[in-house]
Amino acid sequence: MKNKKIISVGVLLSIFMMVRACGQMTTQVSVKDEQGNSIEGAEVRFSYARPQGYESVSKLSNAEGLVKDTGKTNFHLNVRVEKAGYYKATYAKSNKGTNLEKNQNHKLDVILEKVINPIPLHAKKTKIYSKDATTRIGYDFEVGDWVKPYGKGKSVDVFFKILYDKRSSVDFDYSFEVSFPNSLDGLQEFKGSDTSGLRSTHQAPKQGYLKTWKQIKQRRPNGGITGNQDQSRNYWLRVRSKVDEEGNLISAHYVKIYGDFPRIQYYFNPTPNDRNLEFDPQKNLFKNLPYDQKVNQP
């Protein structure tokens, strides 16, 4: 009985300390579009983290796109901004660099990206892995598989080659090579948004594609892991490129990839020369995908 009382007192003391640690903060949010124009009437939801859960309040931005709120939180603040016709923006603890701590006032400059033209695409999550990829083999984004005889793919959009020399769990060399079959195919990196519902721009770029790319990872017994793998990295790809007699591009397909190899989420546009990669999640051209391969992000 005595132990129970001690535990109860400890629990009450912990709760008291948490409540006592509640800090007040004032947060001002400025909401604009991609051209820098103020957005009036955007709903801004302030969610204050408390021991019992989140306590939220919603306000609308004024004609200058501004909205302000003062509240108390024991831990941090989450902010969500949305308006019809735009992709919502979220500032939460889970988003890198957007954690709004207590006992601090904050000013957020929020850019809402317009919903322009979401279209059907081939979109899926996958892990690019094959035991046969120690020699360069092709992958078909439209089919979503390795090309024959390794899978059901028909067209080589990209070549992958994986080399893994594992001497032990703390001593290995790993490389993931990306290359392409056509002269003007290629890849380029981009930094995706940590806050917008649309992580990329709406269209793939016209130029800037590299013919080859290599990811490496190494580990030695007396040191940590080194390499250039980065799951915040994203990619644009140009594939199936065709050229005229002078080597000028006349046709190509475009691909968007979220995440770093080998675990990626990709979007393939089946229409030649259409650089639009703004995806409509309700119109995936892949049908009956397993749950762990489905894509819900535009």
Explain this structure:
It is globular and about 60 Å long. The protein is mainly beta. The protein has 2 domains: 92 residues, Immunoglobulin-like (Sandwich); 130 residues, no CATH class. A hairpin with a 6-residue loop joins strand 5 and strand 6. The model has no long low-confidence stretch (mean pLDDT 90). The protein contains 1 helix and 20 strands.
Gyration radius, to the nearest Å? 24 Å
Number of strands: 20
Report the structural category.
Answer: mainly beta
Number of helices: 1
Number of spatially distinct domains: 2
Overall 3D form: globular
In N-to-C order, the SSE pattern is HEEEEEEEEEEEEEEEEEEEE
Q: What labels describe this entry?
A:
298 residues, mainly beta, Immunoglobulin-like, 2 domains, six-stranded mixed β-sheet
Short note summarizing the structure:
By secondary structure, this protein is mainly beta. The protein has one helix at residues 2-20, and strands spanning 23-32, 43-50, 53-60, 66-73, 76-82, 89-91, 100-101, 106-111, 119-127, 137-140, 145-146, 158-168, 171-179, 186-191, 213-219, 225-227, 233-243, 249-258, 263-268, 279-284.
Record the SSE blueprint:
Elements: H1 2-20, E1 23-32, E2 43-50, E3 53-60, E4 66-73, E5 76-82, E6 89-91, E7 100-101, E8 106-111, E9 119-127, E10 137-140, E11 145-146, E12 158-168, E13 171-179, E14 186-191, E15 213-219, E16 225-227, E17 233-243, E18 249-258, E19 263-268, E20 279-284
